[in-house]
Amino acid sequence: MWSICKKDLGLFFSNLSGFISVSLFLLITGLFLFVFPESSILNAGYANLSPFFKLAPWVLLILVPAISMRSFSEEFKTGTYETLSTRPVSHFKIVMGKFFFIIISLLIVLIPTIIYVITIKQLSTNNQIDAGGIIGSYLGLYFLGMVYASICLCCSAFTNNAVVAFLLGVFFCLSVYFGFHAISTIPLFTGNLDYYIEFLGIDAHYESISRGVVDTRDVFYFLSLIGFGLLITFKKLEQKSI
Description:
By secondary structure, this protein is mainly α. It is built from 12 helices and no strands.
């Protein structure tokens, strides 16, 4: 499992792909946080990172599928998966090795954003920030990224075309993140089922955990989605090996 993870990490960061991913994430979020007037925290009058945590899920919506789209699709296309499957490694370890590659890559992308926290603290009047809220937001963002990772890994297992895997990943991540919220705003459900429909989507749970209070219902929700995506991926690989 770890050998698969290390191999994929080495391939990803041995060329420009990994560094471009980190650089683009920092560039896009940095522009929105400090340059663009409408979203700049310098013009907000108060020091917090809420603009970053509102923007980051949308950036990850593109970034995570881009990182994971070749996980299985490229292996299928080049025929290296057949070689991998002949080794004494279970399908479970293959799936988890690929999954850990994605979430470790995601962690490497997020770590440099700590500079935003330091900047916000320096900009505050008394060097005080809402540490609990920021930690909760990072936790929620990482859970969100892991859900994206499990969905995109699953999409990659269903095709040998990396571009198709990327598009499927973006579509399903967007559907789970924003789709339920969009459906809940339909007048037919307003004032009746809108709360329950919205609660099925990631957005509601992400906002909940971002307040700094870790609710076991939110954690269970994220873990359930992650487990479901990995289970489908595992079943698909088993089916392919038959």
